[in-house]
């Protein structure tokens, strides 16, 4: 089978799976319906993983460019499947597959949910391979529409409001994105990445560079909304906290990262081919690096202030994407490899945290970290899974978060970003201590509203399988981090492994011990009477819709002004 055909098949298989779930919905025979549902899951989520294994030799240090159906470049859909496409697709399908299996036990179990879930997965892998701006816009829109519906799938009023806020902000951003696409097409007459780069290289005038720069700013800021960094992250915590647990795992683990790397494939191509664009957007990337670094710290402060377990984890997703953006914005191959590694590792440990905390809070009947205790009685698997996820996000060796954060820290060593990210790491440890309270035994004098004295034992094969898979993955990807770093580096064209071969040394262990001591000290400060008053006041500050739009306009104006002043 031709490589182009394999690429199209792995992109379209999730849609085939979605169709099978819609067919299953129409069937009256329950046994036949189950068979078709299983077939839909296998075809839509697991078969693409097999195809990706077949595609790996074809994209290792190479890439495949083509127009779907060999259409005219003016009207055809351009696809470019390279190492980054492969990395994003493998991250998406692994996370989506395990989250979907979890939903077969914990819910939602309906055919409509699975069909929407697969449509979202299709949009993820299509985004990873897109090589023209309009196709990228369409993929972003499909991602958004599926995500709005899945966020609201719990059927609660809070979930509806979160989905509406997400939709309103995201739709506004996509309108600006489309304006940027129109601006570039109006100047270059092309929508394909290669066609745009070729025009700018050969034909452009000085006046056109300003127009292209402003159009790119529209695209960058609109994408930043989907990625959820300062100052346009406010929609994410409520949306991810309100969504079903399986959707929270995919939204936080994959959905907010794929647009970032998809943008990079276009932006870095232009910067490498056009010196004028490179000069202007190096400063734009510096702004994004600053924003990402600050996001890591600010979001962890908000996470530490939350009393609701899933909202605490949602703010941590914002914080961790800050780490990713701070590395991605360096724009070197080794930095992009390090950014992908942390994105992938975050998908694993954040998926584990959302799924383990989700089933525990469901069993307890509450999400309040101050009022749940004895959650360890829900079972060994969810308890151990949570602590593996907590150690991973806290960068405790040999779990994966230690390796990816070490790779990013090395990129920033000696800079102010290194200091800020170190402070964010201390906050992460403190907030994981806070979240772990729900597993602690109750004190005799402690007044607890929700006391899980005889909690529901968490059962279900696929639920436990999902937790165990993510747990083992967090450990194994940490132990084999140098090999995974070498793989990522090779696929993105880096001559350097982002992960040092001497990862687990005595000095690194000393640093980890110091980090945990500082984290525990911060936790004790936060849980003191004064600390509680401060964190409660921070928690009460919820982002408004007007504030989100103002932040979006502010980011657009600042970057647009930077382009005009720099040129």
Automatic annotation (TrEMBL):
<comment type="similarity">
    <text>Belongs to the CPA3 antiporters (TC 2.A.63) subunit D family.</text>
</comment>
<feature type="transmembrane region" description="Helical">
    <location>
        <begin position="246"/>
        <end position="267"/>
    </location>
</feature>
<feature type="transmembrane region" description="Helical">
    <location>
        <begin position="287"/>
        <end position="305"/>
    </location>
</feature>
<keyword id="KW-0472">Membrane</keyword>
<dbReference type="InterPro" id="IPR050586">
    <property type="entry name" value="CPA3_Na-H_Antiporter_D"/>
</dbReference>
<feature type="transmembrane region" description="Helical">
    <location>
        <begin position="416"/>
        <end position="440"/>
    </location>
</feature>
<feature type="domain" description="NADH:quinone oxidoreductase/Mrp antiporter transmembrane">
    <location>
        <begin position="130"/>
        <end position="427"/>
    </location>
</feature>
<feature type="transmembrane region" description="Helical">
    <location>
        <begin position="77"/>
        <end position="101"/>
    </location>
</feature>
<feature type="transmembrane region" description="Helical">
    <location>
        <begin position="504"/>
        <end position="524"/>
    </location>
</feature>
<keyword id="KW-0812">Transmembrane</keyword>
<protein>
    <recommendedName>
        <fullName>NADH:quinone oxidoreductase/Mrp antiporter transmembrane domain-containing protein</fullName>
    </recommendedName>
</protein>
<dbReference type="InterPro" id="IPR001750">
    <property type="entry name" value="ND/Mrp_TM"/>
</dbReference>
<keyword id="KW-1133">Transmembrane helix</keyword>
<feature type="transmembrane region" description="Helical">
    <location>
        <begin position="545"/>
        <end position="565"/>
    </location>
</feature>
<feature type="transmembrane region" description="Helical">
    <location>
        <begin position="165"/>
        <end position="188"/>
    </location>
</feature>
<feature type="transmembrane region" description="Helical">
    <location>
        <begin position="376"/>
        <end position="396"/>
    </location>
</feature>
<feature type="transmembrane region" description="Helical">
    <location>
        <begin position="35"/>
        <end position="57"/>
    </location>
</feature>
<dbReference type="Pfam" id="PF00361">
    <property type="entry name" value="Proton_antipo_M"/>
</dbReference>
<feature type="transmembrane region" description="Helical">
    <location>
        <begin position="208"/>
        <end position="234"/>
    </location>
</feature>
<feature type="transmembrane region" description="Helical">
    <location>
        <begin position="6"/>
        <end position="23"/>
    </location>
</feature>
<feature type="transmembrane region" description="Helical">
    <location>
        <begin position="134"/>
        <end position="153"/>
    </location>
</feature>
<feature type="transmembrane region" description="Helical">
    <location>
        <begin position="461"/>
        <end position="484"/>
    </location>
</feature>
<dbReference type="GO" id="GO:0005886">
    <property type="term" value="C:plasma membrane"/>
</dbReference>
<keyword id="KW-1003">Cell membrane</keyword>
């Amino acid at each position: 089978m031709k490589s182009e055909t394999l690429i199209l098949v792995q992109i379209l298989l999730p849609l085939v799976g979605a169709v099978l779930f819609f067919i299953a919905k129409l069937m009256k025979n329950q046994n036949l319906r189950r068979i078709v549902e299983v077939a839909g899951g296998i075809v839509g989520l697991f078969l693409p993983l097999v195809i990706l294994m077949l595609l790996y030799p074809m994209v290792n240090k190479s890439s495949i460019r083509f127009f779907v159906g060999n259409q005219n470049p003016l009207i055809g859909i351009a696809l470019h499947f390279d190492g980054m496409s492969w990395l994003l697709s493998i991250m998406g399908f692994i996370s989506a597959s395990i989250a979907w299996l979890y939903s077969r036990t914990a819910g939602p179990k309906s055919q409509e949910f699975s069909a929407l879930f697969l449509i979202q997965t299709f949009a993820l892998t299509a985004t990873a391979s897109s090589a023209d701006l309009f196709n990228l816009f369409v993929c972003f829109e499909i991602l958004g529409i599926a995500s709005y519906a899945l966020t609201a799938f719990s059927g609660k009023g809070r979930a509806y409001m979160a989905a509406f806020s997400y939709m309103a902000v995201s739709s506004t951003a996509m309108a600006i994105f489309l304006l940027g696409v129109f601006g570039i097409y109006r100047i270059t007459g092309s929508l394909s990445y290669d066609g745009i780069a070729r025009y700018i290289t050969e034909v452009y005038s000085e006046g056109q560079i300003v127009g292209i720069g402003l159009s790119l700013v529209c695209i960058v800021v609109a994408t930043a909304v989907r990625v959820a960094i300062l100052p346009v992250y406010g929609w994410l915590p409520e949306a991810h906290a309100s969504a079903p647990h399986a959707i929270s795992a995919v939204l936080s683990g994959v959905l907010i990262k794929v647009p970032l790397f998809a943008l990079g494939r276009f932006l870095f191509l232009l910067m490498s081919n056009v010196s004028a664009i490179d000069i202007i957007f190096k400063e734009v990337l510096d702004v994004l690096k600053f924003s990402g670094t600050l996001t890591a710290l600010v979001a962890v402060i908000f996470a530490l202030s939350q009393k609701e377990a899933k909202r605490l984890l949602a703010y941590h997703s914002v914080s961790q994407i800050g780490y990713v953006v701070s590395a991605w914005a360096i724009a070197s191959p080794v930095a992009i490899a390090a950014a992908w590694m942390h994105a992938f590792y975050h998908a694993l440990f954040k998926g584990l945290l959302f799924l383990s905390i989700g089933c525990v809070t469901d069993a307890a009947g509450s999400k309040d970290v101050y009022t749940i205790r004895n959650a360890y009685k829900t079972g060994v698997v969810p308890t151990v899974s949570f602590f593996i996820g907590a150690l991973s996000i806290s960068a405790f060796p040999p779990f994966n978060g230690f390796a990816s954060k070490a790779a990013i820290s090395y990129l920033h060593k000696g800079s102010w970003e290194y200091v800020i990210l170190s402070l964010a790491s201390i906050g992460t440890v403190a907030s994981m201590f806070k979240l772990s309270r729900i597993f602690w035994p109750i004190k005799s004098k402690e007044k607890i509203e929700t006391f899980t004295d005889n909690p529901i034992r968490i059962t279900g094969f696929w639920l436990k399988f999902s937790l165990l898979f993510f747990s083992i993955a967090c450990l194994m990807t940490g132990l084999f981090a140098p090999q995974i770093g070498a793989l990522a580096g090779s696929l993105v064209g880096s001559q350097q492994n982002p992960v040092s071969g001497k990862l687990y040394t005595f000095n690194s262990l000393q640093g980890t011990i110091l980090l945990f001591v500082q984290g525990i000290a911060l936790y004790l400060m936060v849980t003191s009477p004064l600390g509680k008053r401060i964190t409660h006041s921070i928690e009460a500050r919820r982002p408004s819709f007007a504030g989100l739009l103002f932040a979006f306009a502010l980011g657009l104006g600042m970057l647009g002004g930077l382009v005009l002043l720099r040129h």
